[in-house]
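Today's session is about reading a structure prediction critically. Students often jump straight to the picture, but the first step is always the sequence itself: look for stretches that repeat, for charged clusters, for runs of hydrophobic residues. Only then move on to the predicted structure, which in these notes is written as discrete structure tokens rather than atom positions. Here is the chain we will use throughout the hour.
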Amino acid sequence: MSDWAEETEDPDFRQHMDEQTAKRRPQPRLLSPEPRTFENWEHVPDYLKPRSQWLRLGRKVKPKEAAVARKVTPYILGDDEPLGDFEVLDSSDGLTRVTSKPTELFRESQTTPYTPTPRTEAYWAFEDIFLYGANRKNWLYRSISDSGEESDCWATEEVKGDCGLQHDPRYLTPARVRTHLNHGRIVGIKNQSGKTRFLVLDLDYHLRDREVFLEQARVLLEHFHGDTWHYQVSKEDVSGMHFFKVFPKPRNLGEAVGEIEQTLQQLDDQNPELRERAKKAGMKSLAEIEIYPAAEQGIRLPLARGRWMILDKYVGTTTDKKRKVADIERYVAWLNDPNRKHMPVEDILQYLQTFTFDAETQRCRKEADNPQAGRAAPRTKDKWKNRQRQNFIDFWINGEANGIALNEHILVLARTAWAYGYSETEAAVQLKKMVRQLPGKAAASSSRLTKQQWSQIDKVIRFSYRYAYRGNSRQKDVASSTRKLKEIAAHYRHIGFDPLKPASWSQTKPVARKSVITWNEQQRKRLTAFLRSPLKAQNDALIMPFVEGVIQLAARMSGRQWGHRYFLAWAKAEHPNIKLGCDSKRLAVLKVLQEEGILQLLRAGTKRTGCSEWSLGPVALAATGADSQNVTGISPESSEDLGQGHSLQGVKARPSTKAQLYTGSVALGHEYYPYLTQPTLTSPLQASIYIGCYSEITPPTNIPSTPVTASGLDPP
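Below is the predicted structure for this chain, in token form.
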């Protein structure tokens, strides 16, 4: 204080100066209290929980909240051990007690409401089942390369020592399990606590005796089926099968395994012949099948990469954030459903029949994958690329399997027949006939051919065309596969190559066909007069060729569905001088064609059934010389050859894809758009023509603008 202030006797002024001086002095900082430390979870109060537990309770810790307590795992540091990143807890008694990364604890007042995603809830349910009683310190994994290949051997991750076990980088955490479910690696677990919520029967094949493996699978499936039993198998080459059983509550592992072992022993005693066959093949009998989880050996978790889970249907992957991951939501929903359904045993056995290969076939497949030095051969996944027709000829005519199994030959041919336009019944009958006419050399592709086990082969055929005719199912990318198959079938029709008629397989060039349509003078004048106004053709000479083209179109698409978009695309390709871009103009033209007996509306299109179905009218039938029983008789060839050279034979247009609305086929695209209709349409004819109209779609650019042979929509 200044001398002047000291000499001042005014007490109020002196008090004011003292207050100002105190404000200028630095204030002591209040330190936040140290969080309480617990060394045992039993001592932690119920109102304190870590972040993960609050999430499961529908609460989330607020950002930047400081922990009010923590749980630590103490460890006594040795004399020669470096302190490193460890935190010292106590060293007063001569021993240094340390810890690493303690678990932070929070109160409910430090949290906010939280709603987990369905996938997160499914993660929790999966972890509750398969991490219960698991050994977190000793587990297995297989890595996945950048190319998606799985490593050949299991690696063991083992935690040694006791410092901060739950934070040890080798510890089996829920995050590692989620990596397994997201197909970043494959995880296998062991049991530690002697308690479990699941059991696994491990039925091995390993290319021993295929028939013994399939028979053992049949016996086990007939007994271990229903309730929560489900199965995991490989998507490609089946080398074994895992039978999973999930319990609603934890069970003693020894008791649960003992019950299963007793049942397996009974099944083994009931099948002594199967037991002897297994021993001769070097395989385990039913009583010797391994049961997991175990303390010493690990077992692969379900929903692994490259595997199907067989529930009521095949469950594999789904798309989450633009990546392929395990469909954990579907799996957990099935487990939690008290009215869950199961895939029939016969269907599961048929899958095993189709995708289980004997040793010889597997050897051929491996040789194709790993050719000898200096010898070029396609990889297994590329063995059909640009070789489908040649593979058909090599196997079905010459008997050369080219390292491809019989089941695969049948499946590919069935899918091709479906895309070509054959009915399910026709494909089944012809496939059975072709299999029985195979050359003797083809028997090398399957022991069933050698033993002439036709009943088993017929089952393969039945399930193959079931896969093909049920939406081209069991493909990694159904839309892409369907598009390619349609393009291949269109090319086959263009060159006259019929997949179910080997006699046509030498055909490599387009088949030229001529239509015979006869008109009298009165018919020509009448049609020209009635179509002159709606067509607005530049020349009357263009009208009759247009009518004849419509007749060929209706005959070719007999029994199929097509709408006004397809009619427009066809007109642009076949009759570019006829302009039908206006909707009302196409409506008027089709109405005249129907009234004059050129076209006949068989069934009007609806939102549910798709586009309309048309046939030749009575005038067109008379002009082509065909009767009502043979509406396709527009050429001297038989009706069986109709459509060869046309890309739309056997294709139904539905109002779900834009390409179908243009071309009647899915060959040009597979994107789905919202369905729109024209609100001003009233008559059945108008509704049928405008069915499936998409306002935002523009015509495809790959339709030719000049007249070409056949439909003009075939690929080059």
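Discussion point for the tutorial: The first strand starts at residue 36 and ends at 38.
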